[in-house]
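pasting for the record
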Amino acid sequence: MTSGQDHTMLTRFILLGLTDQADQKHLFGVFLLIYAVTPVGNLGMIDLIRTSSALHTPMYFLLSVLSFLDICNSSVFTPRLLTSFLTVDQSISFAGSVVQMAFMILHGTGECLLLAIMAYGQFVAICYPVLYHTIMSKCLCIQLVVGTYAVGVSISAVQTGNAFILPYWGPNIIDHFFCDIPPPPPPVLQLACSDTTLANVILLFFSALVTVPTVSAISVSYTYILITICRMRSLEAQSKAFSTCASHLTALSLFYGSVFFVYVQPNPESASAYNKALSVFYTIVIPMLNPPVYSLGIKVSRPLYKLGFLT
């Protein structure tokens, strides 16, 4: 029996991409356009919030941070994907895989936490408008953003280390366009040359540690928001309160909807294509869609000041 010391650790993985090499070339223009629009839209959102005094509120400060996260998240995946469309070499170095996964988890965790914080902000604005600036102070918002990144870095370090501390001697082919680890089944962990039971348990635990509290906070916040809106006597106030929540609810539905369906596997024959399509949506398409979605909320934000919201 050959000892582990006789094995050579892998130095590269092969990413098969979205489709076969011939079809991928036709997708280059589509994804190049998406990647061009994403930073333009999100940087435009950040600049609009920075230059418009009416948008200097805690909610839009958090939105500008979300826009920054979206730019970073898209940049983790799209340039590598665009390169793969035009080259024969589909490999990625072991170190590159570690970096890609680390940033993916960092930005994914950050987005989950930030969406939950924004839901809490909506709750305070609708349910306690008079205390909004007292509760959601600038200092608290900065602390929440710093805390979001701290938690993201910690979760990323644990999850990435959990995946790549395992031995990888071969095979090295990943049927995906990036080094993903969401279950089931994690494509990277499937290549490990040892028992991955503990690694999968750790993966599930830390995934739940992020998603369960954030989804719970979002659900509780919007439950109270709905109750408060239903108690409003003015139809105009109800309409504008619903309008200011609509953009955030749309973004929540897009993000958590696509992440949720990753866990709802179809038949094994189509599981790979299914996961790739969903991964494209929540890693590349959603960062492009967030600016137009939230711009709808900006249009109704100013009338809300007159109604006592966000003031």
